[in-house]
Structures are given as structure tokens and as C-alpha cells.
């Protein structure tokens, strides 16, 4: 999670996986790689990994997925907040988990 938070302010670039710019799944892939865990560079594929958790059970580092079909992923950082790379023109930032609309899945990888 600290690796993801260290990217706050970096620009969003579609298809980017770091170290200086990211898209949503590139950011989560990069952060997990720093912890020695390999994730695909696809929010949809990441949404099928790990184990499902409920919102009440979210822990920092868990992944949160949005839309149907899944097309966005963020990382939970605690206190109802997430870090994510959202869209062109917006930097990596920390926002409310509810800022993207309906959550479709929450997963714990590890």
C-alpha cells in the first residue's frame, strides 16, 4: 500500500504501469509487484484473483473494483479512502471509496 501511496500526484496515462505514470490496473500491479506479488495489467483479470471480502472487512491493501463489466480498480488505504489512477487529466490521488459509483467487487490478494 505504501508503494501505491508514494505515487500520489503522478499522472494518469492509459496503459501505463509506472514508474512515473499509471493507469488504474498499472498502479495496483506496480504496488503489488513491490511486495513480490504478480498481478496482470487488467482490472477485469485482477477482479478474479484472491478472495472476496465484504466492505465491513476491507483492510488496507485490498482491491476495490467498479462497473459491470469491471473496468476500474483502486486500492483501499483505510478510513473509507482509496488510492487510484482514475482518468486522463487526473493524477494518482486518494479519495473516498464511493467517489467512483457502485462497487462491484472487493478482493484480498495474498
What descriptors fit this protein?
single chain, 110 residues, alpha+beta, endopeptidase fold (from Nostoc punctiforme), 6-stranded antiparallel sheet, 3 helices, NlpC/P60 family protein, NLP_P60_dom, Papain-like_cys_pep_sf, thiol protease
Tell me what the structure shows.
There is one protein chain. This protein is of the alpha+beta class. The chain has one domain (2-108): endopeptidase fold (from Nostoc punctiforme) (Alpha-Beta Complex). Helix content is 17%, strand content 25%. It contains three helices and six strands, in the order αααββββββ. The protein has a six-stranded antiparallel beta sheet. A hairpin with an 8-residue loop joins β4 (81-84) and β5 (93-96). It is globular and about 30 Å long.
CATH class: Alpha Beta
Judging from the principal axes of the Cα atoms, what is the shape?
globular
**Neighbour order of strands in the largest sheet:** 1-6-2-3-4-5
Number of helices: 3
Number of individual domains:
1
Q: What is the residue-mean pLDDT, rounded to a whole number?
A: 97
Query: Biggest β-sheet, characterized?
Result: 6 strands, antiparallel
In the CATH hierarchy, the third-tier topology is known as endopeptidase fold (from Nostoc punctiforme)
- Kindly report how far apart the N and C termini lie: 13 Å
- Work out the oligomeric state of the chains in this entry: single chain
Structural class determined from secondary elements: alpha+beta
> Helices and strands, in N-to-C order?
HHHEEEEEE
Beta-strand proportion? 15-25%
Helical fraction equals 10-25%
Give me the count of strands.
6
CATH architecture: Alpha-Beta Complex
From the alpha-carbon coordinates, what is the Rg to the nearest angstrom? 12 Å
Amino acid at each position: 500500500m505504501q508503494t501505491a501511496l508514494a505515487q500520489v500526484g503522478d499522472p494518469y496515462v492509459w496503459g501505463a504501469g509506472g514508474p512515473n505514470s499509471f493507469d488504474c490496473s498499472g498502479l495496483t500491479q506496480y504496488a503489488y509487484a513491490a511486495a513480490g506479488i504478480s498481478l496482470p495489467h487488467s482490472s477485469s483479470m485482477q477482479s478474479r484473483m484472491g478472495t472476496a471480502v465484504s466492505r465491513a472487512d476491507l483492510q488496507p491493501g485490498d482491491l476495490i473494483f467498479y462497473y459491470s463489466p469491471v473496468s476500474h480498480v483502486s486500492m483501499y488505504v483505510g478510513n473509507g479512502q482509496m488510492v487510484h489512477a482514475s482518468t486522463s487529466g487526473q493524477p494518482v490521488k486518494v479519495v473516498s471509496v464511493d467517489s467512483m459509483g457502485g462497487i462491484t467487487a472487493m478482493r484480498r490478494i495474498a
